[in-house]
């Protein structure tokens, strides 16, 4: 995991515009938002899926970088005053505080477009149709039927009580869609996987993406700001519905464990019994920060 985290950091550093390149302030803010923080869960999942499909690691580098750029852009926009109005992200001031709101908005816009440039400007798969699918997967994960739509539902749900099924619908889009796309993009960089196996891999992505959010809700409720690197207890303070508010702490932990089991079962049919995706599932669900 440490090797892959180091690899994606170097890849992102190389793909992001240099800080001194005009417009310098925007490029410096983009690098501030992306580099030097985070667990890189989405790139790790892309690498794990790429290994199962026999992908060239250099191709997976770009797929992993693209999903991390999308994730970073979403965090920058999520922290804006018009959204969650947060002051801390990955243990440092949020982009709109370190720079300004207008720059933060442009950082998100620029990272979004750069992600698509990264996966379209070079060959990412031997099968050209697979590369088109990768662009489609990422676009769907970002838009109104994915991450942006999930965020819209989240904003509308503030102050309301949601049933577990409604929470699932929200987070399958807000958090799960990009995690699911990370797995799909990594796999599509290679060809050593049947369509039936790819379907099982997608099931794994769906289950582990939802589990990620359940665990996030638990950590937000029980961990400190210093441990998380972001404001703890924010959901309760903002009166947002979570799995903890719907199921209680123990119920949420139990649900995360059930989702982990479902994800691991989906890996049974895959090459190498799921390879590195299996311990990654454990890391996602059993993490403490």
Describe the structure.
The protein is an all-alpha fold. The chain has one domain: Farnesyl Diphosphate Synthase (Orthogonal Bundle), CATH 1.10.600.10. Helix content is about 70%, strand content about 0%. It contains 15 helices and 2 strands. A two-stranded antiparallel ribbon has the order 1-2. Strand 1 (about 90) and strand 2 form a beta hairpin. The radius of gyration is 18 Å and the shape is globular.
How do the helices and strands line up, and which of them pair or pack?
Elements: H1 2-15, H2 24-34, H3 41-52, H4 57-78, E1 88-89, E2 92-93, H5 95-98, H6 101-120, H7 128-142, H8 147-157, H9 164-174, H10 176-188, H11 195-222, H12 225-228, H13 234-237, H14 243-267, H15 277-286
Antiparallel strand pairs: 1-2
Largest sheet: 2 strands, antiparallel
Could you tell me how far the N terminus lies from the C terminus, measured between alpha carbons in angstroms?
A: 16 Å
Specify the CATH class. Mainly Alpha
Can you write the helix and strand succession as a string?
HHHHEEHHHHHHHHHHH
What structural class results from the helix and strand content?
A: mainly alpha
Q: Architecture, CATH level 2?
A: Orthogonal Bundle
CATH topology name: Farnesyl Diphosphate Synthase
- The gyration radius over C-alpha positions equals 18 Å
CATH superfamily: Farnesyl Diphosphate Synthase
Beta-strand fraction estimate: under 5%
Observed structural traits:
mainly alpha, 289 residues, 2 strands, two-stranded antiparallel ribbon, Farnesyl Diphosphate Synthase
């Amino acid at each position: 995991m440490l090797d892959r985290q180091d690899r994606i950091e170097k890849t992102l550093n190389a793909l992001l515009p240099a800080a001194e390149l005009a417009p310098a302030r925007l490029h410096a803010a983009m690098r501030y938002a992306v580099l030097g923080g985070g667990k890189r869960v989405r790139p790790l999942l892309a690498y794990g899926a790429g290994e199962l499909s026999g992908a060239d690691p250099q191709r997976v580098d770009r797929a992993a970088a693209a999903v991390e750029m999308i994730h970073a852009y979403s965090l920058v926009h999520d922290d804006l005053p018009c959204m969650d109005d947060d002051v801390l992200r990955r243990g440092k001031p949020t982009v709109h505080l370190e720079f300004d709101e207008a720059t933060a908005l442009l950082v998100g816009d620029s990272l979004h477009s750069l992600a698509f440039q990264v996966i379209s400007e070079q060959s990412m798969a031997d099968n050209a149709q697979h590369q088109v699918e990768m662009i489609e997967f990422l676009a769907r994960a970002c838009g109104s039927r994915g991450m942006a739509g999930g965020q819209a539902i989240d904003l509308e749900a503030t102050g309301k009580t949601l049933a577990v099924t409604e929470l699932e619908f929200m987070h399958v889009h807000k958090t799960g869609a990009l995690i699911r796309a990370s797995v799909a993009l990594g796999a599509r960089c290679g060809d050593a996987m049947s369509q039936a196996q790819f379907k099982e891999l997608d099931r794994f992505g769906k289950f582990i993406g939802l589990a990620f959010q359940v665990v996030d809700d638990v950590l937000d409720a029980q961990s400190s700001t210093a441990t998380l690197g972001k404001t703890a207890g924010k959901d309760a303070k903002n009166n947002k519905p979570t799995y903890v508010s719907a199921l209680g702490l123990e119920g949420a932990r139990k649900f995360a464990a059930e989702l982990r089991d479902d994800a691991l079962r989906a890996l049974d049919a895959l090459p190498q019994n799921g390879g590195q995706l299996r311990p990654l599932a454990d890391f996602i669900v059993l993490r403490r920060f």
